[in-house]
Predict the structure of Succinate-semialdehyde dehydrogenase/glutarate-semialdehyde dehydrogenase.
Amino acid sequence: MFTSINPATGETVGTYHELDADGIEMALARAEAAFRAWRDSPLEKRTELLGRIADAWEANKRHLAETATKEMGKTLASAVAEVEKCIAGFRHYAKNGPGYLEPATVRTAGGGHAVARWLPMGPVLAVMPWNFPYWQVVRFLAPTIMAGNVGLLKHASNVQGCAALIQQMMSAAGAPDGLFQNLPIKSDKVSAIIADRRVVAVTLTGSEGAGAQVAQAAGRALKKVVLELGGSDPLIVMPSADIDLAAKTAVTARVQNAGQSCICAKRMIVHAEVYDAFLDRFEAGMKAVKIGDPMEGDTGMGPLSSAAQRDAVLEQVARARAEGATLRFGAEKLAREGAWMTPGVLTDMDPESDVAKEEIFGPVAAVYKVKDIDAAIALANDVPYGLGSSAWTNDDAEIERFARDIQSGMTAINSLLASTPEAPFGGVKLSGHGRELGPWGMHEFMNLKAVMFGKDVKAGD
C-alpha cells in the first residue's frame, strides 16, 4: 500500500494498492504484445497519438497541477508550468519526431552504400523521482512513443496519484492497450523487471545510490541504461556580469521547487570584485521570498516534499556549521504542520569539507569568493557531480572558457539553466550518463541499424 501525504498539511491525500507478482507478469505480457503492434505503426499514427495526448493534458491542466501540489508541495504556479512543459514536450515530438527518424545514406568502399536506420527495440522501464512528477516521465515517454517503443513506469512512492493520472491521460487520448503502463511497485521489484527478457532497457532519474543499483541490475542483464542523477551545480559570477539579474536568478534557482531540483544552482561562485554586491542582493532576495500555502498564486515557496527531506537538509546545514561554515540567516524549521523550512545562505564553506562535496537538495545556498576565472572553474569542478552549470559574464573569452572547461553536461550563459525538449539533457561524473530530449534522447533506446548495399555488377563486368 502506498500513502500520499500532503507536505503542506501533513494530511493523507490518497492511498494506492501495490501491484502483486501476478499483476507485474500481466503488465509485462501486455507490454510485449503492445510492442509487436506498435513497432510497425506508421509515423503518422504516432504523431497523431502524441497530439491527442497533449490535448488531454491541456484539457486536464488544472487537475494535474493541483494533484502534484498536493502530493509533493510545489507551488501551484510551478505545477501548472510543469504541465505546460509536458504539453510542449508531446507536441515537440509530434512535430519533429519523424525528422529525427530519417535514415541516412553513406557511400562505402568499393562503390556501394549503406543506409543507417533507427529502429525500435521494445519495452523500456523508467524509474522516476517525485520532484518533477510529470516532466521527468514525459522526457522519457514522448520519445518512447515516437520511437515505436513502449513504456513501463515505476514512479516514486509519494506521487502515485500523479502516476495514475499519467495513465489516465494515455487512456483519454486513445492509446493502445499496453503502450504505457504505470506499475505501482516498490524499489525491491525493479531488479527482477530489468532482468526480464521482455524489458530491453532502463532509464532512471534519481539519487546516485539508486542509479548505482539500477546500473548494476542492467549490467548483469547486459541492457542499456540512461542515468540522470544528482547535481551540485555552480553559478559563476564575473565582474562584467549584470549583478542584479545574476542575483535575482540565483534566488529563483534556490527556491523554485523548494530547492529540490537537480539542475538549479546550489553553489554561488563569485569573483572577489563583485562578491559583496552580489551577496547583498542575493541575501535580500532570499529573505524576501514569501513562504506559504502552495495553492496561493503569490506564494514564492511551499514546503519541502516531506518532513524527512526537510530534516535531511537541516542536518546538512548543521554539519556545515560544525565544519566551519557561517550561516548568514535562515535554514530554520518552521513550527507548523508539514515539511516547512526557511531559505538560508551559507558562506565561509571549506571546499574540502564533507558537506561541500554533497548535493543540498533544499533551499539553502553556499556562496564562495574566488580571485579569478581559473579559481572559479577549479572550484566549480571540485565536486563529484557534473550535471548543470551557469556562468554570468559578458566577456566572450570567458564564455568560451566556461563552455569548454566546466565539467558538466550543460552550461547556461547569463540565464537560468532549464531543460527544454529541443536540447540534450544529462550529466557527467556521478551525475550519470546518457542523454534525454531532442533526437539524442529518442535515439538512446533505438537500434541504429546499417543496411549494406554492394556495388551493382553488370553482366560482362
User: Anything to note?
Assistant: The longest strand covers residues 113-120. The domain at 234-413 is CATH 3.40.309.10 (Aldehyde Dehydrogenase; Chain A, domain 2). The chain has 14 helices and 20 strands.
